[in-house]
Amino acid sequence: MEDVVKKRLEICKACPLYKEDSRYGAICDNSKYISADGKDWSHFPKPGYRRGCACAIKMRIKNLSNHCIINKW
Questions:
Q1: What does R_g of the chain's alpha carbons equal in angstroms?
Q2: Is 66 a domain residue?
Q3: Cα torsion at 19, 47, 45, 52 (round to 10°)?
Q4: pLDDT tens per residue across span 20-31
Q5: How many domains does the chain contain in total?
Q6: Contact 39/16 with Cβ under 8 angstroms?
Q7: Are 36 and 56 in contact (CB under 8 A)?
Q8: What is the DSSP letter of 28?
Q9: Residue 3, CA distances (Å) to 10, 28, 47, 60 in order
């Protein structure tokens, strides 16, 4: 399980929605939107784009039943 958590964190850190928040730590930035393929992002909603989920990443990646909002893991 430790390997899975480590891999998930690496994927999140490479994502444009990754944000270090002073209060919550690493979060999925809900002020941004990302394309389904993860190759583009925007500050504004666009068709087919998903809004960052605002999760506390370090908690979310530990639950193996959770998944990335665009299915990167």
A1: 12
A2: no
A3: -30
A4: 999 999 999 999
A5: 1
A6: no
A7: no
A8: E
A9: 11, 21, 35, 15
